[in-house]
Amino acid sequence: MKKAESNPHLQAPIMEVVENQLRNNDPPQTRQTYERLIEAGHSEKEAKRLIAYIVSAEIFDVLKKNQPFNLDRFVNGVNKLPTMPWAEKEES
Protein backbone atom coordinates (compact mmCIF):
# COMPACT_ATOMS: atom_id res chain seq x y z
CA MET A 1 0.00 0.00 0.00
CA LYS A 2 1.37 3.39 -0.98
CA LYS A 3 1.76 5.70 1.99
CA ALA A 4 -0.27 8.86 1.55
CA GLU A 5 1.52 12.16 1.90
CA SER A 6 0.47 14.11 4.94
CA ASN A 7 0.40 17.76 5.76
CA PRO A 8 2.37 18.29 9.00
CA HIS A 9 0.20 21.30 9.86
CA LEU A 10 -2.91 19.11 9.81
CA GLN A 11 -1.40 15.89 11.10
CA ALA A 12 -0.89 17.08 14.69
CA PRO A 13 -4.44 18.33 15.31
CA ILE A 14 -5.95 15.25 13.66
CA MET A 15 -3.80 12.98 15.83
CA GLU A 16 -4.96 15.02 18.81
CA VAL A 17 -8.56 14.24 17.84
CA VAL A 18 -7.69 10.52 17.79
CA GLU A 19 -5.96 10.79 21.19
CA ASN A 20 -8.98 12.62 22.63
CA GLN A 21 -11.38 10.02 21.26
CA LEU A 22 -9.29 7.25 22.79
CA ARG A 23 -8.88 9.00 26.14
CA ASN A 24 -12.57 9.92 26.43
CA ASN A 25 -13.84 6.70 24.85
CA ASP A 26 -16.04 8.89 22.66
CA PRO A 27 -17.06 7.47 20.35
CA PRO A 28 -16.38 4.04 21.85
CA GLN A 29 -15.87 2.58 18.37
CA THR A 30 -12.54 4.42 18.17
CA ARG A 31 -11.18 2.51 21.19
CA GLN A 32 -12.69 -0.75 19.93
CA THR A 33 -11.04 -0.26 16.54
CA TYR A 34 -7.72 0.70 18.12
CA GLU A 35 -7.70 -2.45 20.25
CA ARG A 36 -8.75 -4.61 17.27
CA LEU A 37 -5.92 -3.21 15.14
CA ILE A 38 -3.37 -3.78 17.94
CA GLU A 39 -4.58 -7.37 18.33
CA ALA A 40 -4.21 -7.81 14.56
CA GLY A 41 -0.52 -6.91 14.83
CA HIS A 42 -0.47 -3.19 14.04
CA SER A 43 1.72 -0.99 16.21
CA GLU A 44 0.08 1.62 18.43
CA LYS A 45 1.35 4.35 16.13
CA GLU A 46 0.03 2.60 13.01
CA ALA A 47 -3.36 1.93 14.61
CA LYS A 48 -3.71 5.61 15.49
CA ARG A 49 -2.57 6.61 12.01
CA LEU A 50 -5.20 4.38 10.41
CA ILE A 51 -7.93 5.84 12.61
CA ALA A 52 -6.66 9.32 11.76
CA TYR A 53 -7.37 8.62 8.08
CA ILE A 54 -11.03 8.06 8.93
CA VAL A 55 -11.11 11.19 11.11
CA SER A 56 -9.61 13.11 8.16
CA ALA A 57 -12.20 11.73 5.76
CA GLU A 58 -14.99 12.78 8.11
CA ILE A 59 -13.52 16.26 8.52
CA PHE A 60 -13.29 16.51 4.73
CA ASP A 61 -16.97 15.59 4.33
CA VAL A 62 -18.01 18.07 7.01
CA LEU A 63 -16.08 20.92 5.40
CA LYS A 64 -16.25 20.16 1.69
CA LYS A 65 -19.82 18.91 1.54
CA ASN A 66 -21.08 21.21 4.30
CA GLN A 67 -22.47 18.22 6.17
CA PRO A 68 -22.72 17.66 9.92
CA PHE A 69 -20.56 15.01 11.60
CA ASN A 70 -22.04 11.63 10.70
CA LEU A 71 -21.38 9.05 13.42
CA ASP A 72 -22.69 6.19 11.27
CA ARG A 73 -20.33 7.09 8.41
CA PHE A 74 -17.43 7.39 10.86
CA VAL A 75 -18.20 4.04 12.50
CA ASN A 76 -18.55 2.40 9.10
CA GLY A 77 -15.10 3.73 8.20
CA VAL A 78 -13.32 2.55 11.35
CA ASN A 79 -15.04 -0.82 11.20
CA LYS A 80 -13.48 -1.43 7.77
CA LEU A 81 -9.93 -0.62 8.87
CA PRO A 82 -7.26 -1.47 7.90
CA THR A 83 -8.95 -1.18 4.49
CA MET A 84 -9.05 2.46 3.46
CA PRO A 85 -12.37 3.92 2.23
CA TRP A 86 -10.85 5.00 -1.08
CA ALA A 87 -9.40 1.51 -1.67
CA GLU A 88 -12.93 0.12 -1.96
CA LYS A 89 -13.78 2.74 -4.59
CA GLU A 90 -10.70 1.77 -6.62
CA GLU A 91 -11.72 -1.91 -6.58
CA SER A 92 -15.22 -1.17 -7.94
Properties at a glance:
92 residues; mainly alpha; 5 helices
Can you walk through the features of this model?
The mean pLDDT is 90. 73% of the residues lie in helices and 0% in strands. The chain has helices spanning 8-24, 28-39, 44-64, 71-80, 85-91. Helix 1 (8-24) packs across helix 2 (28-39), helix 1 (8-24) packs across helix 3 (44-64) and helix 2 packs antiparallel against helix 3 (44-64). The chain is mostly helical and 92 residues long. It is built from five helices and no strands. It is globular.
Contiguous helical run count:
5
Number of strands: 0
The overall pLDDT average reads 90
Label the overall shape. Answer: globular
Percent of residues in beta strands:
under 5%
Radius of gyration, CA atoms, in whole angstroms: 13 Å
Structural class computed from helices and strand pairing: mainly alpha
- The string of secondary-structure elements, in order, is HHHHH
Helix content: over 70%
Distance between the termini: 17 Å
Instruction: Enumerate the spans where pLDDT stays under 50 for 5 or more consecutive residues.
Output: none
